[in-house]
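Two quick folds needed for the group meeting slides. Do the first one here.
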Amino acid sequence: MSILRRYPKQTVIIVIVLIVGAGTGLNLRIQHLRESEAFYRWFLAAAMQARMDSQQAENDPDANLFRESVATAEAHGFFDDFLSEYRPDPEEGVLPDPDEHVRQDYAIHRRVWNFARSAHAVEHRERFLELARQQQLRFARDIQYAEAQAGGVSIFNLFFGFRKVAANLLWIEVDRYWHQGNMYRMITLMRTCVALDPEFIEAYLIGAWHLAYNATAHMPDTPWPQREWHPEHEVCLGEKERFYYHAVDFLKDGIRRNPRNYRLYFDLGFSVYKQKLDDYPNAVKYLAEAIRVPHDRWVPRQLFLCYELNGQYEEALAGWTDYIKRYPGSMTAVEVAPRFIMRNQGHIYEQQAEALRRQAASTDNPGEAVELEAQAVDYLNRARETWSEMNDPYGDGRLMRMEALEMRDAGRYLESIAMLDKARWDTAALWQDLSDLIIEIKQEAGIPLSVSEKKAVMRESEVGICPGMPPEERERRQRAVEAIEATF
């Protein structure tokens, strides 16, 4: 009443209207920024997936909305060609510069944010929120916000501003279940933890470790006939193997929600795909993504190792060479990198010699064949020099392997096998490669296999076949099995 006595009623009403209007405008502004941020984060996650998977399904809601959003952004000048900017193709034989990738990504992300909050993105933002509320988007990082806007009571409404606290409390329960051995109860709680707090990176990392390592520590590998076909991953899985792919899915979910955290890419590529699944193409794929964002200096080293394991010797060589230039005084650059540079160079020489010999065998021109053979011999001599210079068990093993192959070409099969047998016992890193080569030479020469070698061939013949496999895939693999069995 004192205000009404001091000021005219009309003035008070105007002031109240202005305050309410300002509050309403501020709320609308906050809501706009929240929606824009959710759309921006989803856009980055969808862009990451588009960069890593060029064969996206036509009926994928994320892919379709992403393509439409990119088209609008390009049409209004936010990008010239988004995918070519975001996924630049390096020059052939040149290793991408990780620091340059980081700078490019940050510059591009600023333009993504400008688009996400612009009037040009209104239709796409609204479509994003609608699909997120319907839970149709895999990469909707802020799904809890979209659900809250839809009304009703959910786990996100229930905890509201205390989601991080709730996630921490649930994680304590996860740890308790782990110590009790309740693996299956852990999985549901872990997923709830990261749903409440999508930025709980440690939950993703430790959870995936539990799934891929601790849960499987005392489990035997599932025999192939007892496995079942998993259509999503297109692999045969038993109880133990399912835990590996639970870890894969868990980390992929973390990457979708946190596309700029290198630790998630690293653990998926190195800890699961390399260490547990021996899937080197996927290990390379995710470790290559890890160096596109800010990372520790040891991350590229694991990528270079996986390049080598995947047969990408040129990339590994370029990587180690670049590492020495970047960190010239480090122990790795002084003691480790030179050895791996020589190792990959030796593999490259051997590859080039093999390719030249294949060309010589396929040509109808005798003169050309002689020239190609001479070039092949030159590369083999370079490989020998490299392996000799290494002066370590790996180099010695490769030298013996080369000598054994020459014996094989000369028809001295027993001497070749004896040489390979010695080499594999002297060089643990080459054991599997040399053991497979011994079996190959024995089959070529008609020499009976040992019991352990027969079992190895039978195990190989079973790989990839399990109940539930699609008929066409089963038929294709069965033909491969019959080809192996015909060698007995």
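Then this one, please, same format:
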Amino acid sequence: MNEKKWGSIMEAPRIKVNPPGPISSGMLKEQDKLETASRSYTKIFRTAFDYGRNATLVDMDGNIFIDLFAGVSVINMGHGNPDVIEAIKHQTDKLTHITEVPTEARISFLKTLDSTLPGKMRGRSKIFTTVTGGDACELAIQMARFKTGKKVIVAFGGSYHGIAGNIVSATANPHYREYSGNDYINTYHLPYPYPYRFPQKVEPEEMSKIVVEDLENLITDPYAGTGGIAGVIVEPVQGEGGYIVPPKNFLPLLREVTEKHNVPLIVDEVQTGIGRTGKIWASEHYNITPDIMTISKSVGGGIPISMIAYNQDYDKDLPPGFHLGTYRANPLGLAAGNVILQKLKNESFMSDVQKKGQYVIDRLIKLKEKNKYIGDVRGLGFMIGVEFVRNKETKEPYGEIAQKIKAEMFNRGVLIHTCGHYANVIRFMAPLTIEQQLLEKALDIFVEVVTNISKSN
């Protein structure tokens, strides 16, 4: 594919028939007959997709959508990126599966990944491959427990680290533990310094100090009730919790205290990584070095791969078969990941991502000033959230309006999604490669939809 010809379908959005159209409706009915009823995204996006080009998707009935969803921040480099597709095709001709033994794709990926790692991780880390983001987080807490010989993991309110295995205890939403079969054990949640909703009325920098002081007390007080801390797991910007950007001093203070007491710091970069925040890793914004870092989502360009990078000293005495999985390090995903990470090393590319993100934030702030239901606009790079409230004084969450906006955006041909403690935050996570013209068009529609729905409430 010639990259010069690649790009979004610029006439998007174009709705020829109200979704779901007849072909999509038929496919949805077949899916209902054959697949689990516990699906969620088919309730949000009621259509069947045919193909995608960069930041646009075409459904089976010919409707063209602008994609501000990116498969939950998986398609950061756009649908059908020609370099990524070419790498996958090339690897397909050679080998599509093998377990652990070296291949050209594996060694190339490992070298490239190491060259991007944040802080002192670069050149001083080992990589341990897994399959999904939750699997990577599961391995991360196992690694911390193995290293320290302790059990308790400290996580944060609003966190999401996965829902399978023991990691479900670190995910804050209790809903995911209802059917997991795992009791809520060996995990302690501290408040995340959420500037808009922190329980104490203090300045943002003080929020961080309060939280980290509480953490240090848990570590040092033998009667704190923890029995010893094995590790701390944190999202540098919370994802499912509401695209919450913590105060600038939070991660540095967290790093300082965990390092002081030899507690492994696990930084979950599953959603914040691969350029989403305007740097390859969100940790780079805070100049910290994690002990363990989880990686997934966009690193495989749509091929499910994940891994942790961790302090090479932790490798000592690590037994064979410490964490297993047949599909770890799929060669297709590694080939795609090598290309993706090489692209992100381009400073001009990342600068463009930051400019796009700032453009979105600036426009959303202007909308907030005019709209009585937008309580907060926040973001880092191209990871941006808009929080809706019934009243700006009381900050009462208004999840219903966020859901209405999401549904109307879909009807107008734009895919967008919500998150947050109260499902009242709309998040912008378009492919990093979205064209400026298309981004402006999507924001025009968002402003119009928000304004119209606000007037009708």
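Slide caption for protein two: The chain has two domains: 3-67+347-456, 84-344.
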